[in-house]
Amino acid sequence: MNFCSNCGAPANKELPYKCSQCHTEFWRNPRCCAGALVLDKNKVLMVKRLIAPWDGFWDIPGGYCEWNEHPKDCAIREVFEETGIKVKLKEYHGIWMEPTDHSDYGENVCVYYTAEPMGDFFALPDGIEIGQVKWFDINHLPEKIAFPSHIPDVLKRLSDELNPSN
Ligand SMILES: [Zn+2]
């Protein structure tokens, strides 16, 4: 922001910021994301991104929560939108932070659940954000993983849970 939206005084570009004239505070808040580790025995469902960032890399299906949406509902919705598969969530898996270069927002708070497909399922990538949907054995994951600052760790925890003897 170049000017305070409350009083019009010149302002810092960087958030968070407190106006020196009227003392209004402008926050830089995190955004909430949710995703699901959809499991079929030892295989996990992954999606190949068509859009930046990390286009061409494999990701866990998920995305941003709507303004009033519980992360559980977001995870179910995003999996369906990206893969065409309806899922039932099983367990809370964890929360990871993902840095962002968007200066109006803080980091992304990414909530993950494990899930299972409901009924008969047939993966159908959405074709716009997702080019390919594939089941990977948890012990043979693809090399090109999106969001390397946290996704490998999400999968590592899953692998540890599925292979308790390792
Ligand atoms: Zn002001």
Automatic annotation (TrEMBL):
Its cofactor is Mg(2+). Residues 29-160 form the Nudix hydrolase domain. The keyword Hydrolase applies. It comes from the Bacteria. The keyword Magnesium applies. PROSITE patterns: NUDIX, NUDIX_BOX. Coiled coil: none annotated. SUPFAM superfamilies: Nudix. Keywords: Hydrolase, Magnesium. InterPro entries: Nudix_hydrolase, NUDIX_hydrolase-like_dom_sf, NUDIX_hydrolase_CS, NUDIX_hydrolase_dom. Pfam families: NUDIX. One of its GO terms (molecular function) is hydrolase activity. Belongs to the Nudix hydrolase family. This is NUDIX hydrolase.
